[in-house]
Amino acid sequence: MGGSALVLGGALYFQEKVTPLTVAQINVLNSADINRFDRYACSQWNPKIARASDYLAAGSMLLPAYFAFNKGSRSDFLPIANVTIQSFLLSQSIANLAKFSKRNRPYTYNASVDLENKLKPDARMSFFSAHTTTVSATCFSFAFAHSTYYKDSKANPYIWSAAFVLPALEGYLRVKAGKHYPTDVIVGYLAGLGSSWLMHLMHLK
Predict the structure, then answer these.
(1) 88 falls within a domain
(2) Using one digit for the tens of pLDDT, what is the confidence trace for 46-77?
(3) Disulfide-capable partner of 132 in 53, 173, 176, 188 (CB 3.0 to 4.6 Å)?
(4) Are 86 and 4 in contact (CB under 8 A)?
């Protein structure tokens, strides 16, 4: 947890020092230079959908609270929450380190988006989706924990279904908002899943 937090904090600090795109660089951006699979995102832009994706990511962080109100897991609420936090920190440290690849966000190619947004350092941090990573890490951590503490629960298939669907929904929202390419959200999805699985395996006993 400490190592991941240190890496994440350092990455966030140095992201503030990333040199933003210049007006001249923005003017020569051409969506035709983007691979066909990702190019669709370059025509997307919706601040309302972006806010919805923010709410979904923030809301997913509350999932561990479920275990504090159930008999079978109440006594282990802190260890369960700890595993979720570690999954989150590990996945976020990886995601934010990857942002130094300085991949331009899709909206930088969109002529309908105002220049002010394109001139921010954040406009160069598309790869990969930290929002999708967050929802993936927290949802899969929840599913792993629920299956461990309530092995015979009839709700498990539905919980696992939701764990697969919600990060995918988050990824879809991020693409529709013009914030990320499909490849950004796919990698974010897998990073969150991998981090939650690894932390669950390490703490299973």
Answers:
(1) yes
(2) 999 999 999 999 999 999 999 999 888 999 99
(3) 188
(4) yes
